[in-house]
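#lab-general

N.A. 3:47 PM
ok so I finally got the sequence cleaned up, no stray characters, all 319 residues accounted for. can someone with queue access submit it? mine expired

B.Y. 3:52 PM
send it over

N.A. 3:53 PM
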Amino acid sequence: MVMVEIKPDAQRGPAAAAKVGWAQPAAAKADGADATVAHTVADIVAGAQDFGGERIDRVYFKRLDYAIYRRGTPPQVVVAYSDIVATADQQIATISGLLPLRDRLLRLIDDLAPRAQEHYRAQIADALRLGLEKQVVPAQAVLTGAIDEALAAQASRGRLVYLQWTSLAIAPALILIVWGGSYVQARAGVHLLVMAAGAGALGSVLSISIGIRNRTVAIEGDWRSNAVDAAIRVGIGMISAAVLFLLLNSGVIATINAGGVALTGSDMTWQIAIVVGFAAGFLERLVPDILDRAAPPPSPTTAAPAAAGGAGVAPPGAH
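B.Y. 4:20 PM
back already:
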C-alpha cells in the first residue's frame, strides 16, 4: 500500500497533465462530459473518480483546501491538495515530515487482517489532517502511537502463529510414543529411542509455550519466519532427545542417578526413556552442555624455546 498525494492538474498545466496521462480538468469541466470525475477538492465525494481513474471509496476528511480519501485495490490513503498552487506547495512541505512514519506504519500493517488495516488507515488520515492543519507534533504523536499499537498487534499475531505451528508437533509426537511402545518392542532399544524422540518434541512444545506466555520468545514480523523457527526448535528437541537417550543407553556417559534410579545402561525402562527425552526437549541447552563437558580438554601447548642468539640475548659462553 502506498499513499498517493495529488495536486489537481489545473495547477500543473497542460504539459504536466499530459505527462501523467490525466485529462485536463478545465476542458472537462467546460464540456461537462464527465461530471463523475473529481477535478477540484470540492468534487471529491464517495463514488466519484479521481484524476487517476480510481473510484473514491471513502472520504475521511474534506475541507475547502484539501481532502483525504481512500481509493483503489489495495486501498490507498490519498491527499488532494488545495486548488491554489501556493497553498498546495505549503501543504506538501508541512506534511513531508510525516511520510517516514506513515511508510513505516504501512509496512507494519501489510500482513494484518483487512479490518485492522482499515483501522490504521483511518489513523493515517487523521494524522495527515492534523499535519495539513499545521498541527505537526500531534500528527507525529498519532502516527507514533499507531506504530506502537501495530507492533503490539504484529507481536500478538506472531506469537499465535508460532504457537499454532508448534502445536502441530503434538500429534506426531504422541504417534511416535504410542508406535514405539506398541509396535517396535521386538527390536531391542529401538522403541525406547522412538519414544524418547517423541517425548523430546513434547518437551519443546511445552518450553516454547512457556516462553510465549512469558514473552521471552523472539517473534518476527513475518509469519513464515515464526513458522520456520517453531519447526526448527521442535526438530532440535527431537534430535537432542534421541542423542541424549543414545548417550545414556549406550553407556557413553557414565553413571547418572536421579532419585536413586539409574538413568544409564541397557536396562532403561520406557518411563525413563520418555522422561529423558522430555527433559532434552524442554531444556534446550542440556545436550550441548553435556557434550561440552564430555569433550576432552585441549592439550597444553609447550612454548618453543627461544633460539640461541636471539635478539637481545647472548648465547651461552659469549663474552
